[in-house]
Fold this protein.
Amino acid sequence: MSTTNVLMLGWEFPPHISGGLGTACAGLVGGLSENGVDITFVIPRLGDETAGDADTATASESAVGQNERVHLVDCGLTDDEHEAVHIDSALMPYLSEIEYARWMERTGRSGVYGDDLFAEVERYAAAVEKNTQGTYHVVHAHDWMTFPAAIAVSQKLGVPLVLHVHSCEYDRAGSAANERIVEVEQRGLDAADRVICVSRYTAQRLRDRYPVKADKLRIVHNAVAQNDARAVEADEPAAEAASAGTRIDEPIVLYLGRVTFQKGPEYFLEAAARVIRDEPHVKFVMAGGGDLLPAMIERAAELGLARHVHFTGFLRGPEVDRIYDEASLYVMTSVSEPFGIAPLEALARDVPVILSKQTGVSEVLSNVITVDFWDTESLAARIVEVLRSDELRTRLASDGRADAARLTWQRQAELVSDVYEEVIA
Amino acid sequence: MTSIVLYFHVHQPFRLRRYSFFDIGREDEYFDDAANAWIVRRVAERCYLPMNDLLLRLIQRHGAQFRCAMSVTSTVLEQMERWAPDALASFKRLAETGAVEFVSETSHHSLAFLANGREFRAQVRAQTERLERVFGKRPRSFRNTELVIDDRVTRVADELGFAALLGEGADHLVGWRSPTSVFAAAGTEKLKVLLRSYELSDDIAFRFSNRGWSEWPLSAEKFARFLEKVPEDAQQIGLFMDYETAGEHQWEETGIFDFLEAMPGAAMASGRFAFHTPSEVADREAATETLEIPHPVSWADAERDLSAWLGNSMQRAAHEALYGLYDAVRAAADAGRPEFLERWRKLSTSDHVYYMATKGSSDGEVHAHFSPYDSPHEAYINFMNVVDDLARRLAPTKRARSPDVPGSTSATVATDTPSTSKIQSPEGEES
């Protein structure tokens, strides 16, 4: 056998992403194809555009296939070695049970999609199983909503199952973990031949929280697509980029990520409140959307940070570049971050970073400052120190970038290929 | 004889454009001219023009017996000058009849009285002068933004020489008394306070088209019967409402125009009632009760207090941030840059903080109905970005006084930046 054929159950490609999951999938698929792996990529997607949010402008659609619910499309990647299959489903990355229920209520799509999130996950599994044919060597799935589908299709095809854990329910929800999600995750971990974890932190967590055999676990850190930043920068009018550095004179401390429990946004605000007591001119920007955003906006107002913290909502490609251009420092306050790709993106753009210790990405970055997420006093002190020292800022940015540059998707994909070989052999 | 005071409030805010974090320091246009032009033209066609014609007909029909009052904010006057001059001309025709009293207020429909006495007086003077200039008569009556009154407002209104002040006849203010009395205000000399009879006013303003209301449909004759039930000794019945009630809040199809055209005749048929303007009532009637108003009372929401504008932390933070810039804005104006003051005043319009309200229930629905934003948080973010930009543009003139301190609501602004600061900032290069 010369080429490995992988059926991958993943998530949307950029720019239609709501967090790191789509970015990681895209990076990995690109890296694997450079390693000569053929991939058929299966994505849940709403079958009818009027339902809104989940369209895929990236994919130029040329529908074939007998079943109207299966769209074979050119997924817009660099070569023709793989294709994307869209399965009609209401699933989206990071969807919560409540969000799903609200969406159903708003759109009245019951009868088409599952009555609740779990029913939809099972419905998706059945649809994937039914609509997937072909010869594959391995099934590879990303995070819990795809696990039942992956189990079903790997059994149907009689091929090994590799699961990729980008985050587990205990990361996302802490002690408020949804038991039913944990159950689905456990089912996947039991059925999988190998489990790829995005960090040692995650592997440890799976061992602590779920019974999973250690010899199944493999660690493959994420990487950052090195040329992403430059590609979008070219779209920016030169004048705009030139003025970007001067329009706001104050140093900007950036939070960029979903505004959810997992990311610890309230610790960012508390540190901000502490910083401005000494450095009232520092600006804090919280960029991203999420279920805690309204609460954080109110919290910032309560803390007297109205003039010091700005909220941008969810940012898209060019806006992400602009905010990195303007930022003096990137801070990640995650409570539990299996990996956390954003700091790598920050470093790729010369922005120094401070990370919480509860992040997987800190395992691959030796030249960063880390603090415990709950220690906002220390975080505030580190922020002020970095902002006051040009030398420190420069060193953190350049050394950190060197760390980040060592991680490429091509290299990380090789590690994933090794895992495929283990299970196929 | 009981006076009926029919009073309409005419106002449109300068709505903000979507102003993102990335616009700060780059984009100096804050207001959404296209939306504001479109809305004022629509309101002119649906309400101002047909209502003004209707009032002109009533004045012709009933002669000296029909009177009413109006307040027209400077913001809507400016919008009509720019985008609906025909509507402005028709207001002027009403003024020429002498049957309509134009009531003064803050020029920009602001909450200035809460934060800054100097600015409050300045806006009232500006509005009084503008009304005199546009409509040819100096206002003798006053209403504060959203009908908010308290002991401070009554004193300033008295001090500025107004004969009458309009207020909300809220239960917790009126107590055992009747809102139909003419009130004096504690600590004032000549001022008379006329309160809104909210039941009767809201029968028209809110319930008119409500098919679930036991009195629906409301005819002029039925409303006249309601009026007859008001006790004989009533001095005045305040029917106060937004002008946009006709044609906007209550669509033309509901029959609101026909009702308003027939109502005065029906009300006067028994001979017990006469229509008067607020200052006419103040001149005719002696005050029979005295009000003390320690806490502000407004005509908004179930609470009838300030919670519609300053009820949550976002609203208070936005209000404080805006008024924190006041000294810098004034300094800029004194230094020959008055354009900042006008922009600041357009931001002081209370609608901007009203959009940030997070109330649930039916009041929340009313807030959402008027808001150009999808959520109160979006309204807050947008407003704060604009305030930040304004602060930056003011920086060269504010450096001397360095008022970049959150939470300062008035002239008491911190005078120095903390000396520990070593991070460069716009104010960093201190002399």
